[in-house]
Structure formats: structure tokens, C-alpha cells
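Technical appendix A lists one of the benchmark inputs used to test multi-chain prediction within the project. The record comprises two sequence entries:
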Amino acid sequence: VQLVESGGGFVKPRGSLRLSCAASGLTFTNAWMSWVRQAPGKGLEWVGQIKSKTDGETTDYAAPVKDRFTISRDDSRKILYLEMNSLRADDTAVYYCTTLYGGPGDDYWGQGTLVTVSS
Amino acid sequence: DIQMTQSPSSLSASVGDRVTITCRASQGNRNDLGWYQQKPGKAPKRLIYATFNLQSGVPSRFSGSVSGTEFTLTISSLQPEDCGTYYCLLYNDYPRTFGQGTKVEIK
């Protein structure tokens, strides 16, 4: 199984960025997928989650990103997305996509992609 | 929202020492928790799921327990490769909540 994030980079405050996470070797269609971020030198912060289509493809978000970030998925291409708008300096972080699975079996994480919000 | 308070924030121990890290949940009586280890520059790795269960491939010196709303990760005999930062994660509510992290160093 591989999760490979892309799309990170530098963006100015109030700008937008879209991150992608390409999955391989995973039954992506059935997976609930999450984004977790880590600001430089700080701890892990859950960003949000999208359920599988069969479970309604519903999304949940952390309060700091709600109404600014949107998680979506393309099951045909096995890609998870994180659309980030109205970016702020405190959104600067490494963003990981992950299954963040709570049950038995394996739990998968990507290598992370760095987003830097700075003028 | 349930808050998680993880302690200590850091610790230094000798090889062979027994090490415990705790996470206290602000509420709930059927909390479901995981423990993660993170090495610098790497993604986290799950050690324990569903409070007690050892992830496949993780050494048996790692164990998880709970008493009320206080969850504990125990390393029975600290090894040099166990240095890193450890996080708890509460699964059974939204938003998902990580503990603040415990940095483990070897003396």
C-alpha cells in the first residue's frame, strides 16, 4: 500500500491550494480517509475525514479549518483531495493523508507534503 | 468536544527502564484510543489500537491499558530504537483528538 501526497508548496495568506493523495494497493473505495497536519515543531492535528461512498461520503472537519477546507475523493482514480481556501500563516504544516484506521489490520500514512503560508 | 491531556510532555530514561505515558480524556466511558510513535521527519506509526491491541509487527514490550478515562502506554523495557515522540488518538468522537505528544529520549 502506498499513499503519495502532492500539491504542497508556498502560498500567500488568503490564497488557495489543493492537495492530492494518490492511493495504490488499497481498497480505496471502502476506505474512510483523513488528513492530519503537523505544524513545524508541533504535534499532530486532525484536519478532517471523508467516509466511503457506501457510507454516505460524508465529511467532518476540525473547527480551525471548517468552512475553509474541503475534502473530496475520486474513487475511480483512487485520489483523495484537500481543497484549502483562505489560507493563513497558522495553516503552515506538513499535511499527511492517512486511513487513520481504528480497528484491526493495517493503518496507512503518506510521507506528507509541506504547505507554507507566507507573504 | 472531548479534550485529551497527555503527560509527560517529555521524558528521559535509561535502556531497560519501564516507561509509562498517559492520556486523560475529559469525558466519556467507552472511549476508543490508539497510540502512535513518530520519528523525526517520518509519518506516525500506529503501535496500539482499540486501547489494548498491539499492532502487528510491534514489539510486545509495548502495551496499552485504561482505567476510567485515563489511558496508558507502557514500554516494559525501553530500547534505543524507542526514542521518538508518542501520541494518543481518540477515535470514537468527532473531532478526532490527538494528545499533545510525549518526547522520549534515551539517557
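Chain A touches chain B through 24 residues (CB under 8 Å). The mean pLDDT of chain A is 97. Comparable benchmark entries are summarised in Table A2.
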